[in-house]
Design goal:
about 0% strand; transmembrane; mainly alpha; 6 strands; Major facilitator superfamily (MFS) profile domain-containing protein; MFS_dom
Length: about 575
Amino acid sequence: MVAAVASGDSGLDSWGDFLKKEYRRPIFFCALIAIAPIAYGYDGTYFTSLLETPVFVRQFGDIIDGEPAISSSDQSLWVSIIQVGEVVGSLAAGPIGDYSGRKGGLLSAIILLAIGVVLQMIIVGSGALLTVGRLIAGAGIGIISNAAPLYLSEIPPVEIRGACVSSWQLMLAIGQVIGACVGLGAHTLESTASWRIPVGINLVWVVLLFGVLFIVPESPRWLLYRGKEAKAERALKKIHAGSDYQDSLVQEQLAILNKSREEEAESSSSVSRWSDLWKNPVERRKFIATVGILVSQQISGVQFIFSYTTTFFTLVGLKDTFIITIIVDCIEVIGVIASFFVVNRFGRRPLLLYTGVFMLFTLLVVGALGAVAGQGERFEPYLADHPSFGKAVAAMICLYVFAFNVAWGPLAWVVAAEMSTGRNRQKHLSIGTALFWVSAWVVTFTLPYLFQPNEAGLGPMIGFVYSLGALASLLFVYFFIPETIGRTLEEINFMMEARIPTRKWKDFDLATVVAKDEKKGTRGTTEHVETATGAGAGVGPRPEKPRTRRFETSFLNNKKANEEIDAVAESP
């Protein structure tokens, strides 16, 4: 058993701890990779702005009732086709990532994104090229949605892993703000620049990410699983270059990763197989948790807000909808930032449940408001008589957005990255992100047919539809998602192998098992002896009274475990 044990609590004592030297390099590399989700967030809001941009509507729309307009079918196609590409990209990310690593996956993603962006811009009024371009760009974003969260979960130590993976949602939200601001600034231009500038800005993310690939190291976990131990050691040295204990950290983490890989091979197989995702009960549990949490994030209807904010607010009678869209996107950013302060206090699982209940409530209120207003011929007169109706709907949506981004936005990706551990890690997240995009596509494709007055005409009553998804998401988390805060990826993998029940993870302590293992002399850790002669002491031997230092990369992160292990190990 991998049994190195970290001293200290499961989280950081204060936000100032992020500035410690041992965390600076991992945070720097994660910050560079976190540019990737900006492309995903940017696409959603800039394109919804294009649907309300006069020049774009004239050049790409049809004449409906004597006025240029974009039909519901074209809205559905152009907004949702990118999700089709994202499904394809997510599925392709598995074999691409297994073969070429996290950096190889990101390189293929930015190539596809660049091609897709260029195709969208080259011919004015070509709906076909716009569709193909968004499909190809979507494939690039699909690969990003697989490779980036994996990288963000594999590089940092356990204390800062949650914050680093959560940065995915933060940068996604910032991308949405940028997209909304660009849409506001460009939509009044009386030339093709009104839509070509927003589309072309996607190339900025391409250039930035291409430069990032020359700076960041490859994932050491992927390198080790590919048998490239020398390269994995070099990558770890680059990651821990700022630490006073660089050599010790590198050797210990190599020992832990190698031992974890050996144990996994002994318990099942060292070969990564697609069939294991369903046939092997342990891998099946990981698969269900990874796929389920990502799909659950989508079925409560967040894509309705993400993809159609401006259009929906126009429908409910609000003015200055571009400004309101920016406000909603800023609330997303505030929500994600707030999550950094509450996740370590409440944990992953409780926060998902608490915010899920609140989101369910806001969706029911939106649906109830829509039911009062009615649909069809009743809706327009009701808006005219009740000018505050749209503001009430917008207020509920803002509350929903805040709650979503406090928990479900960032934590779904954190939990998915943590649940998809072991040799099939890339495959779990590949299928998970693919089904995430399938569920996103279903929402974005069907939405115009549900809320547009000339279709089903549900309007705000779609809140009732998505409240069912929110309820299903709550039930899934309660029965299938364990609490993983403070656990290393190796510990999570072991607890999956040990088949610990979902609701027992929070209080489960492996100290006794680890202690017995150490007493037998089979403990798979690398111990590092350091001098204890003062604050300036360096790493080195002290034969007369050695002291073991356990690092944050170790298997268990528990003070009680350290005490029990030492007690058992020293007993006769």
